[in-house]
């Protein structure tokens, strides 16, 4: 089982980003170690950069850009 103890402390927009990304599978999502560590630390700029610096971002293109911006700002786009 995968648990993010800090999940409940996130605002709804950033929770939605992780839910969106979880559709790739939780095993793949937990592989985003640096992004998840940055989210846990509240460093959303670094988290967004880590998201964009991934094979996933290259594969999904504009979707990754949108999710990274939501991580960075906490604003739904």
Element layout with pairings:
Blueprint: H1 12-22, H2 26-29, H3 33-41, H4 44-52, H5 55-60, H6 62-73
Helix pairs in contact: 1-6, 3-4, 4-6
- Protein structure class: mainly alpha
Number of discrete helical segments = 6
What gyration radius follows from the Cα positions, in whole Å?
11 Å
The 3D shape can be described as globular
Low-confidence stretches: none
Features:
77 residues; mainly alpha; globular
Account of the protein in words:
With 77 residues, this protein is mostly helical. Helix content is 66%, strand content 0%. The protein has 6 helices and no strands. The protein has helices at residues 12-22, 26-29, 33-41, 44-52, 55-60, 62-73. The mean pLDDT is 95.
Tell me briefly what this model is.
The protein is mainly alpha-helical.
């Amino acid at each position: 089982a995968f648990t993010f103890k800090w999940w409940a402390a996130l605002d709804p927009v950033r929770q939605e980003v992780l839910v969106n990304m979880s559709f790739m599978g939780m095993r793949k999502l937990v592989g985003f170690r640096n992004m998840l560590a940055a989210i846990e630390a509240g460093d959303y700029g670094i988290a967004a950069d880590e998201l964009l610096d991934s094979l996933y971002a290259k594969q999904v293109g504009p979707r990754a850009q949108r999710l990274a911006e939501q991580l960075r700002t906490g604003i739904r786009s």
